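Batch manifest line 279
LIGAND: magnesium ion
JOB: complex structure
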Amino acid sequence: MNETIFSIKDASKAFKDPRHGTSVAALEHLSLDIRRGEFVSVIGPSGSGKTTLLYLLAGFLTPDSGEVLYNGTPVSGPAPERTVIFQEYGLFPWKTALGNVEFPLKARGIPAQARLSAAREFISMVHLSGFEDKYPHQLSGGMKQRVGIARALACQPEAVLMDEPFAALDNITRELLQEEILRLWSGLGKTFVLVTHHLEEAIFMSRRIIVMSARPGRVKESVVIDLPEPRTAETKTHPRFVELKSRLMRSLREEVEKTIAAGREPGLVNDMGTIKVSR
Ligand SMILES: Nc1ncnc2c1ncn2[C@@H]1O[C@H](COP(=O)(O)OP(=O)(O)O)[C@@H](O)[C@H]1O
Ligand SMILES: [Mg+2]
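JOB STATUS: finished
ARTIFACT:
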């Protein structure tokens, strides 16, 4: 369980801003190790490079300098074993729920009959049996994200990378899906990395939280979330939860304030631990 699955070594990443002919340093000298089977969340102010960090792990981006290793080998592009769940679901609108979940199985060359039964199984794992033949536009946001999760699992991933996967959902649906994801994580024993704006969500779900500094993003601190297991509805009222929340809130606030002081991204951290950004 202690073996490293992802290792980022001194990675920097800048983006060109074509409007101003300048370059924005998104990540600078960032180093981070993630162990196999961990559930890690990444929190930080808006623009601190959280998505950039996740995309380096996914292989959508490569660092300008430094290294991103997956099982000791440099990441050179996306791969199904490092699957990503997006906020916008990313479903094919012309395919049914089942068709969407079948897609990665088809891409892996699994024969039709086996594919169908595997897809049905993944659909049932996210409690969507009976909705196999619905198209995305016939499903609620929460159901669409369940299809997104089922499709990600159909990739047989070693690591599931999530970028604000619940941000578009109402609170109840969000909480249900948090619990669902935790159930899948503990059942599957895979590595989960979650990028979220939502501090309570990060604490509830994670075994470790990475706090990003204001831009350019680095790891400000890595905090072990030593809450009793399993995590349940009571977890959020546990004294240790409250303690961790105020400690992390302070850390996050410092970085948000630096971002504001630098004249970028005006924002504040509200009582829910959500960073509000008004543009
Ligand atoms: N494709 C891109 N082109 C130009 N700038 C980008 C691009 N992606 C990210 N950035 C910039 O890099 C910084 C970090 O972005 P991002 O990783 O999306 O932060 P976060 O997810 O923490 O909000 C931001 O200033 C953002 O504007
Ligand atoms: Mg982002």
